[in-house]
Each structure stands twice: as C-alpha cells, then as structure tokens.
Amino acid sequence: MYTINAIAENRTVLGFTGPFIRGYFLSLVKRISPEKAEQLHNPSPVAPYSIKPISKKVIIKGKMRYIYGDRIELNPGDEVSFSFALLGKEIIDELGIELLNKIFEDSRIKIGNATLVLKEVNINKVEKVQAEESERILLNFLTPTFFRRKGSAYRDLFPTPKNVIASVARIWKLVTGEEINLEEIREIAENEIGVLMYRLRTSRTIDLGRNRKVVGFIGRCVYEAKNPKARNLMNRFLAIGEVTNVGGSRSLGFGVIRCTPITKEMLEKIMSQERT
Predict the structure, then answer these.
(1) N or C: which end of the chain has fewer CB within 10 A?
(2) Over the stretch 190-220, which tens digit does the pLDDT of each residue have?
(3) Which helix (H) or strand (E) holds 172?
(4) 37 within 8 A of 74, measured Cβ to Cβ
C-alpha cells in the first residue's frame, strides 16, 4: 500500500475524492505502461488494486486523526492523506518500484480543485498483513459502503458478517489465486459470527457522472466470534479488508474500513455511550 501525505496549497472544498485518486493512480500507471493503465481502467473480474480517498488531519481531544468525508474544507497548510494498494504478486512485480518513482517525479499533485504539495510516501506490504486473535472487533466504515446483490438492481446497505467477510475472501481469492472455500466461509460467517451492536447511517448520494449515483452506509458495528475457526477467519479477513476495502466500487474509494480488537469491557463502554 502506498500512502501519500501532502500539504494543501490552496483554499478549496472537496467532495468525495475516490474517483480523483483513482484517476491520479491510473495516470501514474500510464506513464509506466499505457497498456497496463487501460487494462486497470476496466479490470476483470475484479480490480487488483484499492483506493482510499483523501482524509484530512485533525486534532480531536488532543489526539491526531485523519477524517474522511463527502465534504472536506481545505486551507493552505492543512495536512491530508490518501492511498492506493496493489493486490497480488503479478501487479506488484509489474509496477512496484516504478510506481514509487513516478510519484516522486512531481512535487505537486492536482486533485480536483486542490493543489497538494507532496510531503512523504509510506509503503506497507500487503503480504505482511497480520491479524490479532480477538474475539470481538470494532469495525468502522469510514467511506460509503454497499454490497451488490446478484441478479438485483438494489444494493444491500447492512454489514452482515457474511456480506463483509465473503466480500473480502472473494477479492483475495481472485487477486492472489489462493485456494479459498468461499461457500464454507459464507456459512461460517453467517452462523458463527454475530453483530453485537451497530450505529450506521446512509451517506449522501454520490454522483459519479454518466448517470451513475451511489448511496452507501457509514458508521460502526461490533462483530463477535467465539468459535476458534470462526474467530481466526474473522480476524484474518477483516485485517485484509483494511487493505482491499470491502463491498462494491472498492477501486473508487468506497468501503474503506478500520478494525480495532476490543475487550468485553470496551464493548460495554461503547454500548453505554450509544445509549446516552
């Protein structure tokens, strides 16, 4: 995963930036290989990359955080971050270090109406994703998320464990070639992993152009798995999901998640806060 930290140079307001970040990523790839850029523009069967839109650095209660949103106000000097991840050995071998070189060719990056001054680039290897063995996980949906329903024009707007974990497992199987029993994973996720609480809301409608409009959900929920096999599956694929994103339109910055292992006491505190 390539995480780019930059400084805003001008005052502007940005909407959902996922498509802009995807455009920037593909422009970098085009400098390396126009053929590869065209292939990644219309990938099949799944995009071997994911996008995380611009988030803004803020200080909340003395703690530094990066906040996503469908409306981000930027002033000169504000710090922002965005990312893209290469998924699978083939695309990493093809682009890898060349992609990093292309990023550093420009000290300024144009994203929508914003001019960003490159500050630093951090790289984390997808292959080294590590998962803790936690019985409960707090799952934050940071950008609008939705799940496609086979044979239906409607989208599913609730993060059942089956929706989330099967989505990640399918993506991982397709981009890595790993032998993964998707039917078994769906069954375990549906029957052995529970939702203990949730607080979700639908997002604003995001206009992607060409009569394409998307509504998703954002918010948080807590999963629990007591069965050891289900717990291992939950921890592993949620950790991978932080890299791949989950659900539909991952390559446009939808379905960005953050996972936090929590104790029973932490869960009780969260649920107490939800009641107040």
Answers:
(1) C
(2) 999 999 999 999 998 888 877 788 899 999 9
(3) helix 161-176
(4) no
Tell me which residue has tokens 């906040």: 67
Which of 222, 250, 239 shows the shortest CA–CA distance to 165? 239
191 in Cβ contact with 226 (< 8 Å): no
The domains of the chain, with CATH numbers, are 2-126 (3.30.70.1890), 131-275 (3.30.70.1900)
Dihedral-angle region of residue 96 (phi above 0 means left; psi in -120 to 50 means alpha; beta otherwise): left
pLDDT tens figures, 32-73: 999 999 999 988 788 999 999 999 999 887 888 889 988 899
For 214-254, the DSSP string reads E--EEEEEEEE--SHHHHHHHHHHHHHHHHH--SS-GGGT-
Q: How many CB atoms lie within 10 A of CB 140?
A: 13
